[in-house]
Structure formats: C-alpha cells, structure tokens
Amino acid sequence: MSGKLKVEHLDSSTQEQLTALFKGWNFASFGDTGCIMPTTYAYEADNFLNMAVRPDDVWVVTYPRSGTTWTQELVWLVNNNLDYDRALKSDLGHRFPYLEKSLLVRLDLVGLAPEQHQSFDRPSYELIANAPSPRFIKSHIPLSLLPANLLDAKVVYVARDPRDVAVSKYHLSRVLLNYVGDFKTYWNLFVKDLVLYSPFFPHLKEAWALRHHKNMLFIFYEDMTKDLSSVIKRVASFFDKELTKEDIAQLCQHLDINNFRKNQAVNQERFLNAVGTKGETFIRKGKSGMWREHFDEEMRAQAQSWLDENLADTDLRFPTHS
Ligand code: A3P
Fold first, then answer.
1. CB 133 within 8 A of CB 56
2. For position 1, what pLDDT does the model report?
3. pTM score > 0.90 for this model?
4. What radius of gyration, in Å, describes the C-alpha atoms of the chain?
5. Partners of 60 in the beta sheet?
C-alpha cells in the first residue's frame, strides 16, 4: 500500500531560532505527529513510507540515544551465531545500515573527505533494496512514518528515560548537527518537541501500543543497564534462538560498556574523528540516571510535569531500578 505524507513548515520565528542553534540546518515537521526532520526529508519521506519490507528483515527502531547501537550489536550477534570474529572486523554500519543516514550526515557541513562520501550520498533504502536476506536495518524514524506493514518483519524497539536521552542527544548534536547552544536551551527545545525526531512521547507510544504484537519486542535501556542477561534472553527468545549460560556470559562481556567503548566496529570513532569530535564520543557514560548531574531545580520540576502530563494517558513507565 502506498501513502503520502503531510509536510508542514515551522513558523518563521521557530525556524529562525532553530537555524541559529543548529548551524546550517533547516527543519520541517512531518506526518500526523509532526516529526521534526531536515527539510530535505520532504524529497524522500514517501520513499521511506512505501519501501518494501521483507518478512525476514530485522529492524531496530528507536528514538535516538536510547541504546540503539548497543541493541543492534546484541540483535546482530544473536542472529548470526554469535560470530564475534565478523562483528569485530566489520563495521556495525555495514552489517546493520542506518536507514536515513544520508539525510542526517550533511556532507557539505561535516569535514568528510570526498572519498568518504560514498556511503552517505544515497538513501539506504536504495542501498539495501538488493541486499541479501536477512537484512538488518536501524532507523530512528517513528513507526507512523515507516511502512504500514513494518511488523511483517521483526522489530525491536528500545525506549529510555527522556531526561537521559536529552543529555546524550545534546552531546551528539554538538557534533552532528552543529548545535551551538547550551544544554538548558536544548532541553527547552526538547520538551517543546522541537528537536530532530521529536515529538518524543508519540514516538514511544506508537511502539508501546504494538508491544504485544508477535513481531514486536519492546525493551527499555534501563533494563539493559540493570540486568543485561535477562534482556539477552528476551531477545534470543524473540528470535527463536537458543543460548547457553556461557553464550550469555560471553555476550554480556562483549557488550559491556568498557569493551564496547574500545570496539572500533561499533564506537564510531573513525567517523567522529573524520568530522571533528568537539571533545565528544559516541559511546559515552552508558548509565541510567545521569541526567541528575545536568538538571537544575527548575529543569527537574519542568521535566516532572512534562513526564506526568505525557504519561497520564498511558501505562508506559520508565523502569526505575534502585
Ligand atoms: P550516554 O550518552 O547516556 O552514555 P544510541 O546508540 O541510541 O545513540 O545510544 C547512545 C547511548 O547508549 C549513549 O548513552 C551510550 O553511551 C549508550 N551506550 C552505548 N553502548 C553502551 C553499552 N555497551 N552499555 C551501556 N550503554 C551504552
């Protein structure tokens, strides 16, 4: 089935504010939830919405900075006989392409040399159209902007406390989106749903509504940080794979933040070095609750009422583990 997406321009003062903070970027809002994407998404949105899904596709879909990379590596290994050799040799971006990457890496803004442009200058839905099955696909696009039959494939959706997401996303936005403001300004845009891939709550709620579907596995970052082996077991069972105790222990080791940070196949170090790190790393603290170090009293109160308001009509709750 094909569909056409609603595109709306932001009002001029919002547009101006965003362009001043995200140097060189222009955003518009898309679809019924008003998802904030670069204006260039307008040329591609229908192609993402109508791309062909294969029943044996494996997707990881998240709001950014929710533990996507960590989950991708876990999902890929579970589905590839725990082939650590290949996982360590081949970049995760090749094994598990980022669907809308070409729209988010602005070649004119980042410092990539022309010979490094190749994998960024065509939409991944074209690059993966003829890839052998099973395809592994990462996307941050909300479900409502992805094909309506996405759940013909298996989808793992990861959610995380938005306060930690905002801190993490602020840091990466400094590098990838030329963000020049401070964190408090970023947070104010975040709660107003004016940052890339927002609105946050509709993104999660669309997936939460489908959490009992046989082809949807909904997991929380907080549960991964608290008890990774339990989440590994859930992922293995979702994909009908058997893992021994030893397999799980080895996988926990491989996925441990200290190993992950050093793992060049997942840590995006080469890419960040090429575009200029501004002192940031892609794999950062890897903890839950770090937002407390970044929120003053006013932001804490604002966050609490924003959470209360948005959680009032749902049983979605972010796990708190003491
Ligand atoms: P922090 O910035 O809070 O540390 P994504 O992959 O969706 O962009 O998510 C990035 C977040 O996941 C970052 O959060 C990153 O540090 C964290 N992360 C990545 N690998 C991890 C791991 N092995 N263990 C725990 N957290 C991890």
1. yes
2. 38
3. yes
4. 19
5. 138, 156
